[in-house]
Amino acid sequence: MDYFRKSGRHDLPWRDLPADSNGFRDPYRIFVSEMMLQQTQVSRVLKRYDEFLKEFPDAEALAGATAAQVLRAWQGLGYNRRALLLKRAAESVVRDHNGAFPRGADELESLPGIGQSTRGAILAFAYGIPSVFIETNIRAVFLHCFFKDKKKVPDAKILPLIEETLDRKDPRSWYYALMDYGAHLKQTLPNPSRRSKHHVKQSAFKGSNREIRAAIVRFVLGGARTKVDIKKYIATKIGDTPHDIEKNIAALVREGFMKKTKSGYEA
Prior knowledge:
Strand content: under 5%
Oligomer: single chain
Number of strands: 2
Distance between the termini: 46 Å
Shape: globular
Strand order of the largest sheet: 1-2
């Protein structure tokens, strides 16, 4: 908490939301930030967060948008699947919860894209509910403080410590402090998260199948395309690739990123 008071990231827009009469912060805006921050640098999210919320200011606006509109607004953040999950969660909130985000842990986790970490973050940051959860920076703090000489540490050993140390009166500030201190540790020490059993080194984007998928989605968002158009674009943009372009096109259609029309494909 001393570190957080002196050096914390207090000016992040999703942390600076106004409170209502109950002391609650907007769960929709917090959910958007949590989805954007998954596997994405804070600096990239800062460039897109306000723009995204101007276009989709609430769950109803996001639920009513087309997948293409959401994917266009998401460009630059990577992992486009998160954008569709965000939209599907908004649809569920509107359809099943009268447009209001639920406050129960089970109800939150039933929404598309919300797992243990995102559920806990919404409960703590939006509603001030002391819910136990773990994410990469929190994990780094506990590995550094309690498991300095250990490797392959499972989250099952960390979660009881998170529960034991949780500030039940102000979980919001406590978790923000843990996250910021974890980010600080990663910048100043060998990353403690590498000693987690769950640590997976992210594969390079260049040359990966993710690169092909992202290129196809980006190209189709620019207008209707034929399969020949897509293949020519990949050849020009990326060059020879070992990845199967046609299988990727079929998968993207199946997953809802684009749709097949009589003349080709469109988002």
